[in-house]
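task queued by scheduler; priority normal; single chain, no ligands, no partner chains; default sampling; output format set to structure tokens
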Amino acid sequence: MVVKESSDGDVDRIFQALADATRRDIVQRVMAQALSVSALAVGYAMSFAAVQKHVAVLERAGLVTKQRQGREQLVHGNPDAVKRASLLLDEYEAIWRGRIARMHDIVADDKSGETS
């Protein structure tokens, strides 16, 4: 029951990109509105080049796209990639909830056997 729309490499890139707090913040900011890399860099205590590298990681993961507008490149969030990650996490949650339900049933069966 694992999402197969994305390859393992695609999934790895998405979760590796989201493993960093700065990149998660960038995704959150550009999902609200497209921002230039310069505008993004103002919000962090790091160099413009470091922010560019974070954006490049997010772009390789498909979580953001860049679109040239005049002299700037605007970074846009990609809701489809975020949704893919969310669906995958939902599937993992369903697997764990199923395991917990089966353990609950086993414990309940043991308890009912003790009383009879």
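post-processing summary
- Strands lie at 35-36, 64-69, 72-77.
- The mean pLDDT is 90.
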